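Structure in, sequence out. Go:
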């Protein structure tokens, strides 16, 4: 099933090797299992268009400093997908990855952030409220029912394949400059 996205154009990022860098709590075995058995399979192996993922366990340079691996993963990916859980949003890795993704917005004028709410977190966060207001489609929530999962996966595929600027709320998009 193909969905036509209004204003869709292929999202090309210079120097991108991966479509998506996935950052998540690698210390939580349940989250790691979900990413490897569900997210990786659905995005990399299933569907018409396979989306190459950058994953810490598989693609990072062993022994390299964390900041170097994070920087390269964000830089060489078209999008950065944050798989958010209660434990992960409190870590330094999350904060550093978010900072580096925002730095890409400031330096290159590329909004690469996609938030996947695996658990209901940051509900009172000013950042999350602002993100939803500016670019609601870049915030996706794991469905509560199995029946909604096919829609979730299609929606996530669409979000990571399209430039976030095309999904900005039209009320606010006039305030953003383009290079």
């Amino acid at each position: 099933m193909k969905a036509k996205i209004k204003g869709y154009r292929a999202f090309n990022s210079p120097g991108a090797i991966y479509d998506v860098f996935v950052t998540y709590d690698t210390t939580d075995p349940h989250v790691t299992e979900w990413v490897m058995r569900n997210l990786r399979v659905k995005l990399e192996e299933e569907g018409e268009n396979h989306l190459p993922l950058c994953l810490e366990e598989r693609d990072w340079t062993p022994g390299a400093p964390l900041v170097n691996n994070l920087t390269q993963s964000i830089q060489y990916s078209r999008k950065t997908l944050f798989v958010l859980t209660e434990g992960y949003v409190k870590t330094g890795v999350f904060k550093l990855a978010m900072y580096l993704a925002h730095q890409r917005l400031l330096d290159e004028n590329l909004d690469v952030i996609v938030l996947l709410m695996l658990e209901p977190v940051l509900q009172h966060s000013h950042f999350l409220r602002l993100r939803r207001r500016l670019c609601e489609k870049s915030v996706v929530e794991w469905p509560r029912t199995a029946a909604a999962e096919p829609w979730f996966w299609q929606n996530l595929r669409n979000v990571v394949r399209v430039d976030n600027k095309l999904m900005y709320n039209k009320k606010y998009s006039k305030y953003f400059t383009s290079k």
